[in-house]
Design a protein that fits this description.
- This protein has 187 residues and is of the alpha+beta class.
- The protein has 9 helices and 4 strands; from the N terminus they run αααααβαβββααα.
- It is globular and about 45 Å long.
- The two termini are 18 Å apart.
Length: 187
């Protein structure tokens, strides 16, 4: 796990990756995902502006005496990630180091942490000081997962567009607090 940590990037580098891919797409996928990079950057900026760590959650973190690190498997085009990653980075800032491993550059890490057989992101790995994996979380908070299950159960009654809209409204209102709460439970 230490090798993955060493290859991971900072949040600032993560944001710059989105900008670079948007301005100078190097692959067909990057060209096709242009709108997702734009949306991701907008959502990350909104989350950074609107999110502030909850004092009760900060006290819970302090009480856990967690000395490890947070490694997030992600990609900048991902809607779930654009709402979650900035909040986690801000929450753990100054307390626990957070780095991001780009899923699409090396799939060997995500393949160890599949969600129902899929490479769903973001995937948060809670690492002990010795880089062993204490726990993992992701790709979305419980409420977001419930919306996904509702969509999958009856896509005609709850169409994809409605699901996406409801999910983004939830993320905009919740501002990462549920994701932080769920991760705190895993520490």
């Amino acid at each position: 796990m230490k090798d993955y940590w060493d290859k991971a990037i900072s949040f600032e580098e993560y944001v710059q990756t989105a900008i670079d891919r948007l301005e100078n797409p190097a692959t067909e996928q990057e060209k096709e995902y242009k709108q997702y990079y734009e949306l991701g950057l907008q959502r990350m900026e909104r989350t950074l502006k609107k999110y502030s760590p909850d004092e009760v959650q900060l006290q819970i973190l302090q009480s856990k005496n967690f000395e490890g690190k947070i490694l997030i498997i992600s990609e900048t085009w991902c809607g779930d990630a654009s709402a979650t990653v900035p909040a986690l980075v801000k929450f753990f800032e100054g307390k626990n180091e957070v780095k991001i491993f780009l899923r699409d550059i090396d799939k060997s890490l995500i393949n160890q942490f599949l969600t129902n057989g899929t490479e769903s992101i973001p995937k948060v790995l809670i690492l002990n000081e010795d880089f062993s994996v204490k726990n993992s979380w992701g790709p979305r908070p419980k409420f977001g997962h419930e919306l996904l299950l509702k969509f999958k159960a009856d896509p005609e009654a709850y169409p994809r567009e409605t699901f996406y809209n409801d999910l983004q409204l939830y993320y905009a209102k919740n501002r990462g607090k549920d994701a932080v709460a769920e991760i705190l439970e895993l520490l």
